[in-house]
Design a protein that fits this description.
300 residues, six-stranded mixed beta sheet, alpha+beta, 17 strands, binds guanosine-5'-diphosphate, six-stranded antiparallel beta barrel, 6 helices
Amino acid sequence: KEILDEEDLDSLEDRPPVLTIMGHVDHGKTTLLDYIRTSKVVASEAGGITQGIGAYVVPVPIDGKLQTCVFLDTPGHEAFGAMRARGARVTDIAIIVVAADDGIRPQTNEAIAHAKAAGVPIVVAINKIDKDGANPDRVMEELASIGLMPEDWGGDVPMVQVSALKGDNVDELLETVMLVAELQDLKANPHRSAKGTVIEAGLDKSKGPIATFIVQNGTLKKGDIIISGEAFGKVRALFDEKGNHVDQAGPSIPVQVIGLNNVPIAGDEFEVVSSLDAAREKAEARAEALKNDHIATQAG
Ligand code: GDP
């Protein structure tokens, strides 16, 4: 599904890359993301309590300039799988973490398969190189044997040896990721009504239906009328990952949204429409179509 329309082509601007960290359990995904988040937040923001909206905006210093990266903190494979099943391609680059003292494991293979199926470029973080049993060469051989040829060996997959625990080479990893992002020439049109994908959704006791959207094109604003699947409503409030109120969110930016009448489905698209009546009509038409599908299926 194309996110950009014909009419966007004259108004494209650079957008930050959206990254997902995947890999086998215990290989260091959480440690890596924690290190990146806590070491890279600019001083004024450090210490702020993040409130897990499922994604983080991280300013990364590259060549002395701060560049923005967005990390999806989905419970990895399930969410990636669910989004893929719904045709959403939210991630621009997959960072596959492989522990240097353990090598390729089943979830490593799964992660690689997900990234390949979605056509998402892979950067490998060979992690835990500080450990006694670490054998990064063996990991590279294993990866080469399943078709991921390391750049250092003349292939096209960048691999960086890191210690997420100590932070060794994490800067190099991020620089590598940003280089890959640059080659992708990621663009969107911030000057239009927003559309994107639901990455998390649930019911909050006091706030009602609450969802994290990642804006993929356009800019989402307070007061916009939104629809996602059969859920619709007017954006009453927007929050960033620190729980701060924001007035708008542009391309690649994750934002928590309040104002929907129902809980949308993770992996579904959302879009802004012109009026509540239009939204209601569209939602009802979808509900009707679903019901008919269901009846047709039951009738065999
Ligand atoms: P996840 O399941 O992939 O998110 O893995 P975690 O980040 O929870 O890490 C699993 C364990 O490995 C934890 O005890 C971490 O402290 C440890 N760990 C992660 N990265 C490193 C590393 O670079 N070096 C060492 N020595 N331990 C690490």
